[in-house]
Task: structure prediction
Amino acid sequence: MTNTLKFWNLVNDKANCPNQDSGSSESTRGLFNEQTRKRMQFVSLLLGDNVTGAINTKQKCPTCNGNFTEIDNAGLYCPECKTRPTRYYITAKKIGIPFLYSAPVTKEPFETYGQALKSLTAINHSYDEATSQGKKFDPSKWLPSKNSERLIENICKTWLKNYEPEVDKGLKSEDYVDSLNTMCDSFIIPFFKNKHIDLIDRDDIEKFYHWLLDKDYSSYYIKSILSTLKTIFKRYRPNDMPIFPKISAVPIREKQRLGLARELAILDKIPERNGYRLAILILLRTAMRINEIPAVKKKDFIDGIIYVEKAMSKRRLKLKRKAGGTVPYRISPELWELALEHMKNLDDDDFVFTVEGENLTTGRLAKVWAKACKKAGQKHISLQQATRHSMASEIWERHQNEAKDEIQKQLGHENRQTGKKHYVIE
Result:
């Protein structure tokens, strides 16, 4: 007869006899001093050494108000009064079940030790079956909906969903929210999947940090991922924040200015097809945001000025540019003639820059620029640094006293300090 069958026979015999002690109870008391360890060991004796979890109660003895410190085959009991609790709960934190107070299917509370043991047996069987097949155990199937909502994957989904109205109203950048999605889907959820947010501690955060280090990402990107996780904790566990490791982020790229000689060499290698050279020339001469150039239409070109009020994100037209409003960018007569020639067969409502009928993307522009740098034998510089950063730096050198105002106007910033803080290369 198996240990489990022996147990059920004893339960049937003793469930209504709380005053009766067994030899097993005496031996258990002699072997274990710590209450929790004793209860876990007792479950192991019944179900085997590989069982995960324990059965406990939050109740106290109704007679003496003491704890139910002893255990026998019928469950916990008070050693002085021989009374038993009427409510039990399961805890199996190692496999993602912090507390389970009722049967997963019937939703009925565990009124006896035997009821809790049946559920714990089923949970361990499900866990063993999943691991033997190389799958990940899903504790959410066993948790009530309230507990399931606190699993890290569900927390992330809820947190990200809250950004959707802000993106729709243009209050948050779609690219920014996409980056948060990437960090959650690619790093936070895979590592902490099926983990209850209240059970994640400092050791778990340290393990996550070293897991990221093994992936050879830059310290800047790792810091961004950890900052995202920290923001989630601040929102959903503000009073019990785990300690996060301190990271000294290093710049992910060297700060560079384009310079006239390098500009001429690279421009010579940029193809004219699809308006690539014209688009990049406009970016170099105006320093408009790179995602604004794919959004301009023929009707936005008026008397030597390009009026920009929208931007493009992943081929989707955004209703307004990042800083809002309309910004006029004046271009030289030579550049204006090139633009008119490029637009001669377009209707007023047509986008100026397209590739095979599709909107030009910032990614394609960046690739064209990088390829031209290589062909010209020039050190690579990002298109962002070659345009906006270099323009801000040139303006700063020409006008030390009036530079902040001019940079704000030229780059279309709302804040006067943004240009100096983020774009000027000294």
